[in-house]
Task: inverse folding
């Protein structure tokens, strides 16, 4: 069967893709930016890539007529602006585009919406479901609550809170009940639902066997990690204060923190578990899902992470827009150093950031990350998804990977920190030399003042970094 997969570069899409291939499907991957789509070589023979924008009707005309099924895995939870309108328009455009195909079944992953009063985010999800259900095809919605898995937003936020804070003073929404589900079970539900007649034209809640308060989820996480934690719930935290609390303590963006806080006031508990019986799935418990997630982390097997989504930075751009580093009107710090061992040097470059750090002046990088967080930026908390691999589109601390080619020995990063301008950092092996170039395109007088104010720090940070990258140790 030919399957249309929207959100193929997203957290769920990246994990669903290999399962669909294993089941023998041919997959048409819809992505907004083809430059950041990096599927494993083993999957490429069964993949077609379409670069489409769901807000652009014209781009949707490239969807092939002979698709048999489709997954709708797109949402804008952490986007700035009127994401409700954007999501509704995207759903309508997608539904209309499918009218010109032979699609038999569409599966949509949404959120649990059983309460009478919903958050803005959950209301938007429900509206998308309504619009998609109007199509001339069989339609199924799977509604999930908190998804637990290596790299998921919920998992990483819980991890940040528990591992960083021995004592927590928290808002009252920590008493809200939810029904978490492991990412492996979500993928199983999605793949087994497709073309299953018993699921046609219905919606189902999917969740694990445990119904927990957010407070219990945090405490259970601590037990799994052998960490003793104390949590005190107070009624005085407003949604805005709660959002700032999540934003500063965790790696989440402020937009995502705001959406999460409003959603966490709504109970997300399944109505029933009848889909488990239909599909023959027994979901993992919460603690089992946590243990599986940490097993993946310890073995460096994180397939996808929410941090790699552009929305984690609050920016909206395509890689191709910035891959050509400008020179006119720019300030540059260019340094070269002889490479003692080329393979070792490239491995160091591909391990930069995250837990490894930046090879020199890490405390200054941390201060810069803290200042960025104070001004509403992403800071350094995003880290990186893999310890030693980088792909186009990956988040890397407060940078975004624009180009990564190990054989060529070139890595190009674009700054997502708050700046009065735009910044690039490039590493390139040329012969037996490493060329390290920091480029800054200032925005007005403030941008120029910024460059000269940080110039003394660049002098020894960038010099120390290239020296340590080229040493054979």
Result:
């Amino acid at each position: 069967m030919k399957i249309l997969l929207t959100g193929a570069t997203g957290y769920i899409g990246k994990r669903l893709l290999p399962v669909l291939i294993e089941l023998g499907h041919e997959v048409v991957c819809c992505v907004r930016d083809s430059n950041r789509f990096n599927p494993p070589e083993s999957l490429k023979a069964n993949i077609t890539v379409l670069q489409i924008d769901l807000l652009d009707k014209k781009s949707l005309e490239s969807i092939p007529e002979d698709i048999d099924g489709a997954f709708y895995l797109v949402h804008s939870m952490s986007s700035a602006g009127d994401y409700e309108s954007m999501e509704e328009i995207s759903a309508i455009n997608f539904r209309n585009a499918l009218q010109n195909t032979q699609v038999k079944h569409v599966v949509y992953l949404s959120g649990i919406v059983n309460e009478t009063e919903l958050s803005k985010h959950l209301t938007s999800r429900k509206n998308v479901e309504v619009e998609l259900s109007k199509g001339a095809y069989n339609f199924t919605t799977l509604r999930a609550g908190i998804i637990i898995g290596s790299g998921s937003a919920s998992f990483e936020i819980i991890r940040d809170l528990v591992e960083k804070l021995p004592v927590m003073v928290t808002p009252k929404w920590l008493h809200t009940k939810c029904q978490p589900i492991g990412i492996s079970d979500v993928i199983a539900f999605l793949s087994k639902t497709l073309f299953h007649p018993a699921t046609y034209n219905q919606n189902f809640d999917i969740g694990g066997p445990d119904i927990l308060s957010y407070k219990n989820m945090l405490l259970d996480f601590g037990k799994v990690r052998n960490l003793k934690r104390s949590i005190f719930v107070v009624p005085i935290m407003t949604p805005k204060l709660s959002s700032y609390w999540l934003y500063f303590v965790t790696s989440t963006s402020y937009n995502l923190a705001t959406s999460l806080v409003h959603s966490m006031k709504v109970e997300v508990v399944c109505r029933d578990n009848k889909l488990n019986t239909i599909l023959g799935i027994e979901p993992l418990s919460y603690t089992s899902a946590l243990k599986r997630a940490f097993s993946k982390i310890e073995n460096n097997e994180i397939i996808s992470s929410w941090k790699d989504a552009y929305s984690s930075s609050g920016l909206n751009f395509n890689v191709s827009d910035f891959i050509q580093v400008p020179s006119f009107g720019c300030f540059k710090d260019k340094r070269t150093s002889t490479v003692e061992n080329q393979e070792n040097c490239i491995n160091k470059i591909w391990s930069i950031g995250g837990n490894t750090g930046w090879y020199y002046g890490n405390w200054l990088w941390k201060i810069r990350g803290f200042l960025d967080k104070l001004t509403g930026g992403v800071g350094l908390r995003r880290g990186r998804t893999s310890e030693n691999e980088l792909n186009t589109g990956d988040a890397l601390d407060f940078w975004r990977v624009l180009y990564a080619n190990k054989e060529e020995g070139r890595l190009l990063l674009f700054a997502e920190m708050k700046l009065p301008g735009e910044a690039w950092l490039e590493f390139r092996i040329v012969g037996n030399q490493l060329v390290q170039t920091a480029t800054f395109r200032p925005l007005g007088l403030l941008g120029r003042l910024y460059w000269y104010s940080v110039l003394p720090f660049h002098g020894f940070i960038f010099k120390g970094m290239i020296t340590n990258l080229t040493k054979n140790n």
Observations:
- Residues 444-470 form the longest helix (27 residues).
- The mean pLDDT is 85.
- Residues 99 and 136 are 7 Å apart (CA to CA).
- The chain is about 35% helix and 20% strand.
